[in-house]
Each structure stands twice: as C-alpha cells, then as structure tokens.
Specification:
Helices cover 39% and strands 21% of the residues. The strands form 3 sheets. Strands 2-1-3-4-5 form a 5-stranded parallel beta sheet, with helices on both faces. Strands 6-7-8-9 form a 4-stranded antiparallel beta sheet, with no helix packed on it. Strands 10-12-11 form a 3-stranded antiparallel beta sheet. The longest helix has 16 residues.
Length: 228
C-alpha cells in the first residue's frame, strides 16, 4: 500500500508515517500537493490552517482513485463535530494517529475496500440473499423486514466481503453529522440486525470482534478465520 502525507510536519503525521511504515506501507511526505498525479492508495491531507476544503478538492481531483482523509491534529481525540466537518468538506474520513496502530491501519484498509467497490444490486451469503434495488432481504426462503438503518448496516457489512468493519466506520457512515448519537448505538443496531437475520437453528452470520467492530461471514468461514 502507498500513502502520501500532505502538509507541514506535525507529531501526529510523524506517528502515522511510522505506523504505516512498520506495517510495510510505502510512505511519502510532501509539504504541498504535487502538481501531477503519482501512485497513491491513501492521501492524508494535514489541517495546517489553510483552506482545507480547497486542498481536499484538489486532492480528489489529483488522486481520483485514492482514499482522501484528513489527519486529526488534536491529541485529545476526535469529537464527532470534527470528523463530520472534515467529511462535509470532502474527506472520506478523519484519521486519529493516536489510536493503536493496528486499528488505524485496519480502518484505512476497510474504508479503502468500500471506496473501491463498485455499486452492487444483489448479494448472497449462504442462504441469505439481499436485493438492494428492491430492499428485499430473504434467508432460507423467509422474508426479513428491516428498518432503513438496519438495511444500511447489512449492506455495509456485505460490501466489506467478510472483513471486519470498525465500529467507528459504521458510526461515520450511518450517523454522519449526528452529534447526539449514543455511545452504544452501533452495538444496539448490530444486536437488532442479528436477531432479525438469525432464525431458530440457523448458524450466526453477523459476528462481533470485541473492541474492534463487526463482520458478516458464514459460520464455517468465521471458525476458519479464528483458527488461522
């Protein structure tokens, strides 16, 4: 994976660079956006006081296939308003380099997979089928009625193709800009979706990785993943 870090030198940028390099990423740090494109999977735009909206727009134009994120400069952590504001200005997400390194990288990879996947109108997993256009969900011939947000979570997890989607990524996608969302909103939503998906005697499809997030895989697939 290749990452570009754009902006003035900051401790948070140095830590993110170290985290990525330790996990085999190619990292290049630049003071400003380059005038011409170069290979990059993730472009991190620093918040250095200049017009963030303009720099994000130029980053998207220069790197149309890359994940474009901002870098949190506040060492005390991101407030929902900070992340929502960055996304409203054109960022795909906001990176908190103060989080554990594995969580930072897992989040970037999950968002990158979601960004690169083209729109799909149908999904199938074991005996579960989802028609996105008609918003129809069936399992083993049984129709499953979901709320709008439950359906959004189901499709988000299916898009990840078995990978774990971090709780923070789910929060940002389903409650972007909502400052009043409860801390346990993601867990409560996942619990409701699981109850609707799993009928009597059916293997569980929605799995929890405590402290990380959720994934949607067959029972056999999850057993294999845990044994690996």
């Amino acid at each position: 994976m290749r990452a570009l870090l754009i902006g003035k030198a900051m401790p948070s940028a140095a830590r993110l660079s170290r985290v990525l390099r330790e996990r085999g990423w190619q990292v290049e740090t630049l003071a400003a956006l380059p005038p011409t494109p170069r290979p990059a999977d993730v472009v991190v735009v620093g918040e250095d006081g200049r017009s963030l909206r303009d720099r994000l727009a130029r980053a998207r134009k220069t790197f149309p296939g890359a994940l474009v994120v901002t870098l949190l400069a506040n060492p005390d952590g991101a407030a929902p308003a900070d992340r929502a504001g960055a996304m409203a200005m054109g960022a795909d997400d906001q990176v908190d380099a103060g989080l554990p390194g594995d969580l930072v990288v897992d989040r970037l990879l999950a968002l990158l997979r979601l960004k690169r996947q083209g729109p799909r109108l149908a999904y199938a997993l074991d005996d579960l089928t989802v028609d996105v256009r008609q918003r129809r969900v069936r399992r083993a011939g049984r129709d499953i009625l979901l709320s709008s947000r439950e359906f959004q979570l189901l499709v988000l997890l299916l898009q990840a193709d078995g990978a774990v989607v971090p709780r923070t990524a789910i929060l940002d996608r389903l409650w972007a800009g909502d400052m009043d969302v409860a801390d346990n909103a993601v867990d409560a939503l996942a619990s409701r979706l699981r109850r609707r998906l799993d009928g009597p005697g059916q293997p569980r499809l929605l799995h929890t990785l405590r402290g990380v997030g959720y994934c949607l895989v067959s029972g056999t697939g999850m057993d294999q993943a845990l044994a690996a």
